[in-house]
Amino acid sequence: MTSATVAPDRPGVRAGFVHLLHAEWTKFRTVRGWVIAMAVAALVTVLLGLFSAQGSHSSCAGGPAGTACPAVPVGPGGEAVNDRFFFVHRSLTGDGSITVRLTSLTGIITYPPPDHDAIVPGLVPWAKAGVIIKDGTRPGSAYAAVVLTGRHGVRMQHDFTEDTAGRPGGASAASPRWLRLTRSGDTLTGYESSDGTHWTRVGTAHPAGLPSTAQVGLLVTSPGDLTVKQGALGGSVEQERFTQATGVFDHVTVRGETPGGAWSHDEVGATGEKTDWERYHRPAGVEESGGAFTVTGSGDIAPRGSGEGMRIENTLTGVFAGMIVLVIVAVLFITSEYRRGLIRTTLLAGPRRGRVLAAKAIVIGLVAFVTGLIAAVVAVPACTHILRANGNYVLPVTRPTELRVVVGTAALLAAAAVFALALGALFRRSVAAVTAAVVVLALPHVLATASVLPEGAAQWLLRLTPAAAFAVQQSIPEYPQVTGHYVPQDGYYPLAPWAGLAVLCAYAALALGLAVLRLRRRDA
Amino acid sequence: MRRHLHAEWTKLRTVPGTAWLLLAVAGLTVALSAVAATAVTCPSTGCATDTTKLGLTGVQLGQAAVALLAVLGVSGEYGTGMIRTTLTAMPGRAAVLAAKAAVLSGLTMAAGTVGVLGSVLAARLILPGSGFTPAHGHPLPSLADGATLRAAGGSVLYLMLIALLGLGVATAVRDSAAAVGSVLGLLYLFPIVGHVVADPHWQRRLWQVSPMDAGLAIQATTDLRSLPLGPWAGLGVLAAWSAAALLCGGLLLRLRDA
Lengths: 524, 258
Hints:
A: alpha+beta, 14-stranded antiparallel β-sheet, two-stranded antiparallel sheet, elongated, B: mainly alpha, about 0% strand, globular
């Protein structure tokens, strides 16, 4: 802020704007009701969060209230994961490779729709069979794998969240699929082939902290079969049914130093509970005959979705209430000037009308940002703590994600306040501006999550309206390699977090621009 | 009382915003209902959508205009100081509030009826094109059907009760911005909070006290047994909120200086 940067023919332009800012800040801070309203906004945000956290109790299925749930594995990236599969493995020290031929991938699905009355042969889209190099058999440990899937062809996946597509298609005795995974230092490379001689590279991976001696082997797993139906109070009810997959491997070759020699096998991540199908028909396991391995397994190696726990943004429900208070104050910040005639004094003191409105927007935006930041900084950790104490499983997120949710919430409130201020300047009637702002910010959310609107319409609402900004609170991303029900009701927004916030910012900028035009053209 | 009614009618009639707001109540209701009906499709395998409720979705937007109308009816007078003239001319404060409530209810019901009938008509025209045909078990929405008539008539009553709620809150709060913010917050916050609470017991309890969720139960025509409250009991919850708001507003009007 040096005077050297000010154009010589317009002395004091910057100082003038600083004065304007100071004037607007003084106007804001000297109205006691508004300062109290800011405290109220922060307070209701936190209190509503505490209330809804206090009202959420959960205990593990089958146990009495408060029974601790078995620990959920956490992947190398800090996210909650599913890590359950049948693993035929041996140690591999240093560089090496594993090559297999997959001649069959089949499975069963229990009681699928429409009649839910039979166990039928079939594969779910993300059933997996293939080769893997993994940091031991501990669920959640780092890995890289090349797998053939039920309906998505060959994939190279690592560390739960990463997925690279290979060639599509299935496997049969007539057209088997060859899979290979090689390790060279920290780099793992996946290949596939249809004849065992001509190989195509699928992808490379650098699993986090893979030790020099890792477990190499065969894996088979099969996630639950998901169906969704409409819930009674709006929203939807999801059901998942047991499935199982069986892969037949031959020409299994491991190159490299393999201390310990023989193959061993484990059901990684087994819960100990077995379905009737596993008890009486086909348990998870491996059969070896004449160099061929028939491996059967269930589960998934993938990140968990929002349906498998609470999300940290669940603690920020109160933001809607806080936002309404902020909207009212932001609107009054401009309309009360019209009501009391103060606007004429304001415009006399600062005749450049666009700058006056800009100063007002900056002041109200900053005040809303700080209010929102304080509320979110308190609400997220406190409510997460209460939720966990009540036996709820809160999906863990990384520090940057948590920070984005908290700061994003504050930014969302700031943008909402500027938007409301602009509507106030545009309409000059506080009640019309408040109604318009609240309706466009809250109603799309209500319609998208708690009405009979179909999912497609709900997603368009949250793309096009200012309510898109709530995407900034989404902490669990959508994973294409997991079959899930990715809809707003379950906390999945159609836009990326910052893109959603940008939609609201665009609306605020547009409204502010129109308001400046109107302020310039009309008498105050 | 006739004098009171006439006075309130004249005041409301001659304010420029009223006609526009009544038009907005009807227009917004029909517009959102039509959009909702267009957005949904029924695959040939059949679907469980409650077409009557879907066709009346617009009430959720129309109610905002109703709240605005109700709040302006009171806080406009406080904003200009007109309220002192009103109370000088008609010192019976309860009678003033009653007259305001009667005029407002009448106007809201008229605009609401237009909006709801327009919505039903729009659903009737649009839904068969999206696969909701009698062959799929979705007869055309018709007021001859008892449940649809209840849903449509109930939606008009719902809008009227929202007007009374807005009147009560505005009389208590006086400031227009705070009043309309409170009413809309009361309506829209419950569904949002209720959706996030994980405990199904709390979820149902919140639903049962929510003016919007419970009140809109009047629109449900399928799967009534799964609702936490029946349609009329649900509308009763909203009526209780409106009565409480009016009572509160009336008491404060009597006790406070204008």
